[in-house]
Amino acid sequence: MLEKLSHRLTVDEFMSDRRLLRVTMTAFGLGGEEWKGGFIRKALEEVGDPESTFLARLNNTKYTKFAEALAPIDGSIIMSSGELAKIAVNFEAQSFRTAVGEVDDSMRLALNFQAEIPEMTGNDASDKTILYRILGDVPVRTVFETAFSLPQGISSLDLDRQADIFKEKITSVLGINDLSELAEPDVTEKLIHRYLAMETIEKGSTSYSSASAALTLLGNGVGSQASQNLFISLLM
Q1: How far apart are CA 161 and CA 140, in angstroms?
Q2: Labelling 182: which of 1, 17, 55, 118 has CA 20 to 30 A away?
């Protein structure tokens, strides 16, 4: 399927091949958004325009990477074998996370967070940019909201106020001041552990939920009592 991209394709030809579009979008974490035809076309057509502010205003690293990878030249897309290999690997990884999600949504969100947070904090992004990327990505935002026990009504607040709340929680709970540190393995692990712990508590700490099982595995096989102690320590 992806080998089609090794040959010159016009943007119209790419957009009309629904299967190729779906596979490519999935590889960049945009699976299920194939219906946004006009949106996708605009991203592809304007990525090479230095005067365009579309992707910058969108502030979505997934769409930016998608558009930059395909980067049409004179209205046509052609990719190297190396670029196609990266897309193939990404597609398999995204498909795996989707398959996991069909069995356990908590693990899907945890795996997604682990994969996405380095992208959100990369390219010397400012704290404000990182916060807005987090707020605009529902799966990643969900992990933060659950880990920090934030109320559902927070989404109705002014966006700047939401960003302030997230920044305060990240700083106080994770003990970091520079949000780029979210991508550091120990910080990512700490947040995922906290997320899975809170998921287990919300679903009932007496039941051996899938989140509890995942937390046990992450804790190198600790028993149920140790897991409960970890829950408590994470809430401190």
Answers
A1: 18
A2: 55
Rounded to whole angstroms, the Cα distance separating 45 from 87 reads 20
Among the listed residues 191, 19, 32, the one whose alpha carbon sits nearest the alpha carbon of residue 98: 32
Q: Which two tokens stand for residue 149?
A: 């026990």
| CA–CA separation, 146 and 113 (whole Å) | 13
- Separation of alpha carbons 231 and 198, rounded Å: 8
The region that residue 209 occupies, defined by phi over 0 for left and psi between -120 and 50 for alpha, beta otherwise, is beta
pTM value is 0.61
139 contact partners, CB below 8 Å, separation of at least 6: 109, 112, 113, 116
pLDDT digits (tens, 9 = 90+) for 34-68: 888 888 999 998 898 888 888 888 878 889 889 99
CA 118 to centroid of chain Cα atoms = 9
